Amino acid sequence: MSRNVAIDIFRIVAAFFVICIHAPFITWGTNPIYKCAVPFFCLVTGYYLNGKREDDKLFFNKILVYLRILLLAVIVYLILALFEGVDVEIPSLKILALYNSFGFINAPHLWYLLALIISLSIIHLLKKCGVVWMIYMFLPFIIISPLGKYNLLPFSRLIENYDANWLLTTLPYIACGFTIRTLDGGKEKLKYLYLAIALFFVILTLFESKYWGGMLSDKSAFYVGTPFYSIGLFLFLLSVRIPSSPLLIAFADFCKKASLPIYVWHFLIINILKVCALYELLQPFVALYVFIFLVFIIVSVSLVRRLCRGMIYQ
After folding, report:
1. How many Cβ atoms from other residues are within 10 Å of residue 250's Cβ?
2. Cys-Cys link to 287, which of 25, 155, 193, 203 (CB 3.0-4.6 A)?
3. How far apart are alpha carbons 108 and 264 in whole angstroms?
């Protein structure tokens, strides 16, 4: 499948949105806008998912990459947590597999990596069994978190522990992305309709946050408008055709590669700023400073690697 430049560029925007969630940017009122970040990443994963049976070696190599990143991140965040004097209580593997929470090392955002690993493993198993169609069964789960936020039973009970995990977030949105690809969604002629949908529902999320926020459950991160806003935005980006050039392709490649490191390590920089008593001092632009710093580090590391490779080949 051919790449989509708009999707690749928006990856780094979504990574910035994640930082804004954890370090509120400018005003609290814009927070619901940023909630599309994780759904976007999952939709991308589902859209580019190969529906055919995958070679075991290829699959395990892919999972191993995520496992290595997760393990390194857990070690680094654990060291920082111990340095801060956090009383670390490591949960059982069962609890970790169900809830995907890494709050015990003050790195709650790492749930996404574990949830992604579990989701991809389930999908691989479905492929091997020849029942990949069962992915569609997870689609309705998208609405559980938003309904739970409104304290509606039985959804509110489900999100008490399961909100940000593979069952209620990553797998349903991956299934949605896979469905969009199957239905050949993202047609260019409908791009303004997709944009209108995204704008309508992002305004709805802002309305929900401003007028009903105090009555809603904080157990769920998603408002009722969040799934529709995220899907509308994703479809719009799919439908946008950007004229490619070598410079733009290089920029899109960077955005694609940089999004995951920014996601993984932004919380570390935020924690360090808090330890050094700089977090409040840098408000209300902490998210922007963290983003710029991480982009600078990623660019620097990339340049050093290229320089080293050039020296080796010479």
Report:
1. 10
2. 25
3. 10
Rounded CA-CA distance 266/314 in Å is 36
Check: CB of residue 82 under 8 Å from CB of residue 88: yes
pLDDT digit string (tens) for 247-299?
Answer: 999 999 999 999 999 999 999 999 999 988 888 888 888 999 999 999 999 99
Tens-digit pLDDT profile for residues 119-145: 999 999 998 888 888 999 999 999 999
> Which residues, in sequence order, are CB contacts of 13 under 8 Å at separation 6+?
none
150 HSE (CA, 13 A, CB side): 11
Give yes or no for a contact between 271 and 106, defined as CB atoms under 8 angstroms apart.
yes
Q: What is the dihedral of CA 89, 94, 97, 99, to 10 degrees?
A: -60
Read off the DSSP letter of residue 52: S
Look up residue 123 and give its two tokens. 């999908």
Whole-angstrom distance, CA of residue 30 vs CA of residue 19: 13
pTM score of the predicted model? 0.93
CA 47/CA 270 separation, integer angstroms? 32
Alpha-carbon gap, residue 46 to 103, rounded angstroms: 27
In three-state form (DSSP H/G/I as H, E/B as E, the rest C), the secondary structure along 16-45 is HHHHHHHCCCCCHHHHHHHCCHHHHHHHHH
Give 212's contacts (C-beta < 8 A, 6+ positions apart). Answer: none
